[in-house]
């Protein structure tokens, strides 16, 4: 039985008839971690359960969240195109996704609805498909302790109250978790945001809370 050489990471999860002759430009700058993930067959990838997601958030190790290998490949291809078309991911987020004419908040944190926008995470992690991953974008800063990168007690309290008020009226409290990425893990730095995960929520509530939003992953082939 002849020994088969492993596929280059950039050919994994790609149908043979679609194999490029060389590594695509959008994958050439991949770091080792992304190369390892993209080079993993989807069939070998295990999605995280709701309990695993809650534990990752509880221990504040959100760097353990990863995308499904083929989704990470699509994400890198998409963001590579965005930078060419819009100049930066930030420009796309502000102008196309948020459609905010001004980034100046009208009032104090969570005081006015127009200072907040809830959208789907465009490229969610590899988690149980019953889990809905939302991003709450804000025009105001969510204050962090500069020595720890963690939220200040006041900011944490304000966010907890907002999440409870906004989501727990329609979703069981034990089916709601939220977290804010550490500064060094953020893919979009200049617009404040945090993440909310909901387990098996009512689709009608999701349509209502996101105002009919559709994640980019569902729009891009």
Automatic annotation (TrEMBL):
<dbReference type="InterPro" id="IPR022036">
    <property type="entry name" value="DUF3605"/>
</dbReference>
<dbReference type="GO" id="GO:0005737">
    <property type="term" value="C:cytoplasm"/>
</dbReference>
<dbReference type="GO" id="GO:0006044">
    <property type="term" value="P:N-acetylglucosamine metabolic process"/>
</dbReference>
<protein>
    <recommendedName>
        <fullName>N-acetylglucosamine-induced protein 1</fullName>
    </recommendedName>
</protein>
<dbReference type="Pfam" id="PF12239">
    <property type="entry name" value="DUF3605"/>
</dbReference>
């Amino acid at each position: 039985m002849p020994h088969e050489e492993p596929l280059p990471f950039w050919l994994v999860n790609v149908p043979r008839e679609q194999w490029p002759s060389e590594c695509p430009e959008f994958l050439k700058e991949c770091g080792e971690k992304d190369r390892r993930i993209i080079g993993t067959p989807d069939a070998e990838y295990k999605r995280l359960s709701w309990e695993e997601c809650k534990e990752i958030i509880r221990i504040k190790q959100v760097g353990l969240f990863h995308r499904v290998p083929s989704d990470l490949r699509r994400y890198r291809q998409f963001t590579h195109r965005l930078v060419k078309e819009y100049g930066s991911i930030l420009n796309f987020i502000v102008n196309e996704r948020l459609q905010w004419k001004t980034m100046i908040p009208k009032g104090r944190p969570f005081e006015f609805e127009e200072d907040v926008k809830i959208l789907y995470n465009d490229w969610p992690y590899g988690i149980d498909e019953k889990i809905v991953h939302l991003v709450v974008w804000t025009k105001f800063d969510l204050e962090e302790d500069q020595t720890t990168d963690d939220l200040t007690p006041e900011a944490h309290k304000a966010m907890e109250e907002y999440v409870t008020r906004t989501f727990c009226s329609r979703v069981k409290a034990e089916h709601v978790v939220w977290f804010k990425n550490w500064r060094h893990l953020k893919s979009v730095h200049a617009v404040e945001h945090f993440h909310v995960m909901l387990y098996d929520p009512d689709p009608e509530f999701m349509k209502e809370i996101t105002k009919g939003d559709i994640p980019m992953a569902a729009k891009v082939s």
